[in-house]
Amino acid sequence: HVQLVESGGGSVQAGGSLRLSCAASGYTYNRNCMAWFRQAPGKEREGVARIATGSGDTYYADSVKGRFTISQDNAKNTVYLQLNSLKPEDTAMYYCAADPFLGCLRGSIPPASDFSYWGQGTQVTVS
Q1: How far apart are CA 106 and CA 39, in angstroms?
Q2: What are 40-72's pLDDT values in tens digits?
């Protein structure tokens, strides 16, 4: 079965950095769209970044562009999210998402409803 296991969250001061990891298993990793979302208390789940695991094409939300970097290690079936220059407004639960049959469209992050599988979430707190 499909499984996404996240790690790497934590508490940092503003301006700090974190790296989140999402290890995927149970499906053919390198032919789909994977994404990171975040959700702060009382807010909608927001797409942060996505990567096409076949081509490596990436896309970012405007709120994180230039500060966050999504990458992958195909040998490990793992997607990463490097968070730099963190701000208090980046505080949220971060989730990775995948769907074995979902491709990435250029210039966008698919909506959360398009993804069938989700990680358990990892908390990022910036003070």
Answers
A1: 23
A2: 999 999 999 999 998 899 999 999 999 999 999
Instruction: Write phi, then psi, for 52 (nearest 5 degrees).
Output: -85, 110
Least Cα distance to 83 among 40, 30, 126 occurs for 126
Task: Please give the structure tokens belonging to residue 103.
Answer: 């491709």
How many Cα neighbours within 13 Å face the side chain of 73?
9
Ranges of H-type helices in 8-120: none
Nearest to 51 by CA among 67, 68, 75: 68
Q: Which residues of 21-39 are buried (b: 16+ CB within 10 A; e: fewer)?
A: bbbbeebebeebbbbbbbe
Give phi and psi for 67, each to the nearest 5.
Answer: -115, -35
For 51, the token pair is 């990567």
Distance (Å, rounded) from C-alpha 63 to C-alpha 113?
Answer: 21
